């Protein structure tokens, strides 16, 4: 937990290893990571990282997640070419979520949509707000 | 899982109850919810919802999370006054994350910062990027 650091003022610095050891990984060793396009500020997707993928992402500046469905490292774009270049990584106040500011090459979503959040949900029903090839337009 | 709907084109509609029954709630019955300021597109925070808080949020247009630490409903702003008015709710391609477009009253973070993502993480170390009263400026 990061409680001890929450009153630090802007510009204060902390040791990376100590900080990471205070992040909250779940029972599977994972932390959620939100990817946001750094300039347009679109939220592109949410996926998961373990400590090793987090450190690889910082080292390579190419976003690497942990795939829960495939149970392996998921270097975004390795097969699709739709890579995410890390511009900066943020952690939240209680250390249980990451925000990745990225430069997304092509669509972020496996459906070829630009982002994954294409279902609009409201009390009247759910509406699909972009089509499968929207990211290729 | 929402796989069966991913090739639907823009404007297609789905039944809300059927859609919710296909969302992926974790073993604790929770789904992550990202709150984004609807106009500036800042990512404010990430928290969790269960089905009941999701439905309450849609019904009231005031964001209600499930607090994992307090194990109770967390009607954002109920004590602080820093409420989140829901502008729209989105779900992602595989139905395991929500994006809430909100109008945030005051700071979103319990530290009074505008947003919770105030630790910048990189290989050289971690830097605090806003001070505790930044949201009140």
Automatic annotation (TrEMBL), chains A, B:
SUPFAM superfamilies: HisI-like
Domain Phosphoribosyl-AMP cyclohydrolase stretches: 45-118
Cofactor: Mg(2+); Zn(2+)
Transit peptide in keyword set: no
Chain positions recorded as Zn(2+) binding sites: 93, 109, 116
Keywords recorded for this protein, A-Z: Amino-acid biosynthesis, Cytoplasm, Histidine biosynthesis, Hydrolase, Magnesium, Metal-binding, Zinc
Pathway(s) where this gene product acts: Amino-acid biosynthesis; L-histidine biosynthesis; L-histidine from 5-phospho-alpha-D-ribose 1-diphosphate: step 3/9
Free-text comment on the cofactor: Binds 1 Mg(2+) ion per subunit. Binds 1 zinc ion per subunit.
Keyword match Cytoplasm: yes
Protein purpose: Catalyzes the hydrolysis of the adenine ring of phosphoribosyl-AMP.
Oligomeric form and interacting partners: Homodimer.
Record-linked NCBIfam families: PRK00051.1
Family (UniProt): Belongs to the PRA-CH family.
Protein name, entry field: Phosphoribosyl-AMP cyclohydrolase
Organism the protein comes from: Reinekea marina
Organism lineage string: Bacteria, Pseudomonadati, Pseudomonadota, Gammaproteobacteria, Oceanospirillales
Gene name linked to the record: hisI
């Amino acid at each position: 937990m990061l409680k001890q650091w929450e009153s630090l003022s802007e510009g204060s610095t902390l040791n990376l290893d100590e900080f990471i050891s205070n992040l909250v990984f779940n029972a599977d060793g994972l932390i959620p990571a939100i990817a946001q396009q750094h300039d347009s500020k679109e939220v592109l997707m949410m996926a998961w990282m373990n400590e090793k993928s987090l450190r690889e992402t910082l080292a390579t500046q190419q976003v690497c997640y942990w795939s829960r469905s495939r149970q392996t490292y998921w270097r975004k774009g390795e097969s699709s070419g739709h890579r995410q270049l890390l511009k900066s990584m943020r952690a939240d106040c209680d250390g249980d979520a990451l925000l990745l500011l990225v430069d997304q090459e092509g669509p972020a979503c496996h459906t070829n949509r630009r982002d994954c959040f294409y279902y609009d949900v409201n009390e009247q029903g759910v509406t699909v707000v972009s089509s499968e090839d929207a990211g290729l337009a």
